[in-house]
Description:
By secondary structure, the protein is α+β, with helices and mostly antiparallel strands. The protein has one domain (8-65): Arc Repressor Mutant, subunit A. Helices cover 53% and strands 15% of the residues. It is built from three helices and three strands. The protein has helices at 12-19, 23-32, 49-65, and strands spanning 9-10, 39-41, 44-48. Strands 1-3-2 form a three-stranded antiparallel beta sheet. A hairpin with a 2-residue loop joins strand 2 and strand 3.
Amino acid sequence: xxxxxxxxxxxxxxxxxxxxxxxxxxxxxxxxxxxxxxxxxxxxxxxxxxxxxxxxxxxxxxxxxx
Length: 66
């Protein structure tokens, strides 16, 4: 099965770039449940790019609703 752009898995640096924060902040926010938790695949830790995008879009909608 070939991964599409929407379901690509990204590392912590890419997740931090998407959220516009530091790597340490990504780890903190994942631990406290503020952002989606990563997937563990063997020794790798990856985030779903689609989940990150959805999370950011939901935050935008929440902001506009407030």
